Amino acid sequence: MSTQDPSRNPFEPWKTETKSPPSNVFGIPASLDQPEPEVIGNVSHHNTPPLGAPESLGWTSILEDLPFGLVVLGPEQEIRHENHFCRALMGCGISETGGIEPWLAELCPDQQHREKVINSWREHIWRNQLTRTFTLKGTDQKVREIEFRSSLLEDGGITLTIQDVTERLRTEDSLRHGKSKFRAIFTHSESGTVLVDTTGRVIDANQAFLKLVGIPLSELRLSTLSDLLHPRDVEEFGEQAPQPNVAGSVSREVWLRTRESELRARLTYCPIGDSTEQPALGIYIFTETSAQEREQLEEQMRMISVKAQALLNSVPDLIVLLDQDDTVVDFAPPQEEWEDLKPSNAWSGEPVSEVFPELGEIVSRTQRQLRQEGKTIHADIRSGDHGKQRFASTVSPCGGGQLLAVVREKAPVVPEEPEQPWKAVAFDRSSQTFLATDASFRIIDANEAASRLFEREPGELIGHKLPELFSEDLDDNKAFRKRLEAVLRLDDAWSSRESIKLHNGETISALCDFVSVPLEDGAPGLLVSVAEIQKAEAHKSYDPVLGREAEQHHFRNQIQLVTSLFSLEPQGAAARDAFLKWQVRLRALANAQPYGNATEVWIVSLLQNLADEVCGLTGLGSGRKEIIITGLDNVAVHLASAPPLSILAAELMRLVVGTRQMGQGPSLICDVKELPSEEIAIRFRPGTGRRFLFTDEDAEMEILQVLAEQLRGRLLTEGGPNTATGWEIIIPK
Known about the structure:
The chain has 733 residues and is α+β, with helices and mostly antiparallel strands.
């Protein structure tokens, strides 16, 4: 770097003592090998002339007020001057960052872009004094396009002007893009287009216009546009031209002269320029309208209309054209007369809702789909008395807000006879009492005979529970419900003489039939018929089902009487243990009896009864709390297998609850499930803190195995007898 007096003014070169500068890392400045500059009258535009005396010119204040950035750099790129505009342009000054290159690096956050900018600065601006524009980001994070212009000083330094040209470049790009778009539209337009100046002379024409007139562009440029038009059209077109200061275009048909003849065309004039009073240019667009082609198009339209009318007449359906207000514009009647729908000329101009109400309702309900969404609607129509005549209709939009409806006749409706209507008649008119219930035994229908029997209106009976009419006792009510549930579950029928309490408090006896029937929705229901009504006191007949129940009840009482004889024995520990064993076994045998005339015993119900019996004998209370039974209610075992199964299950229950064992939760859990191998598995698992306790292991194990063999099943255990974590009985169905 050259040494100079610190008090030297950079704009007073006449006071500078120049020394030989050292070598520069960017190359030797162009002024080093030149002789001492002389005072020359006409200097090069690259060299800045010596500045005058600052006292007389005030250069510093002038430079500070320049509308662009000005920077003076010495031969070593040292900053001699930087005006205020340069410092304010990007938010930071060159002197603040330590030089021109650090300043550029500060304004280029991207490393790759920074290297390109600094290399271009060194090569093009500093060494060759070329003009370049860089994309820089200021401290306000706004991206700007900055132009750099440099001029070489006599001592090897440069003056650098910096200016923001962002808006100018954007304007230039917009103009360039607009010109490209205009050129593309102008060149490729299928309409003949001519560009004319203010004198009317043709400047340019596209290929469509050259093909239309058959004249080359070189000849067109020697003539005016008025030479290609008929004089009368030129005069009339001039009268229709837009008034000054009014933007707009003019269009009319004119005669256009070609090389061989004239043709009819539509001319459209569009002014181009900032001023509508004196536009810089004008565009004239020609569209050929041949009279012959117009006549051909009209003839084609007439043929299409004739064909469409012929098509409408050949269709055997009713076709109706509706206007925007849903009035009938036109219609084509069906080929054959319809019985209940007879179109006539009176339909024209009338609302469709009046002449064809069924079709009018469809159009009214589908206005949005037809007119807004443009959908086609298909619907069936029933007309005539009781809707016995059926039509298939199709309504579709056909443009201009109008609708086209096609109505086709379908086969007449044959009234469908309800399936076996005599059933409903028999139910309503029979002198025998009938009641219908749902699966919860709530009455859903009753005939007149039932109304007379119970002295209530049919509507009053509906909603009542059926067991409430047959029994008021809670236990009898539960037993009655169980019998009804069995009828529904087995889809069976059951007959029994039951006592019925009437509304007046009188009790009667009647033979009742309970039949499982499907309801209208497919759900199971119950049909109850009441016959042979007698007063309860006068009837003493034998009922087989009740007799069977009485015999079973008598058998259970006899077994309990036998078990009570054990109380006559000495009450030692062994006697009490034997008493419990035989009480459990005999009661298990009594509970193994089936209900009524059934040939099967339900396992879950059997286990629940055994749990109550065993827990009652051991003083534990309700068996439902101490022994949990899980499984499907409809799993049953044959009558012959019920006694050994009942005794085996009771023995396993006794082994757990027969001796008091401390623990939480239920004492025993029994689970019943069906296996894919057509077998039934019953698993016994002790509760928390409980286990199976054997007093005579060999004898008791032998009893269990004998019972399992009688069932033709298998007895499985996990671990030893006293340490078993579970027993499982597997028996065939």
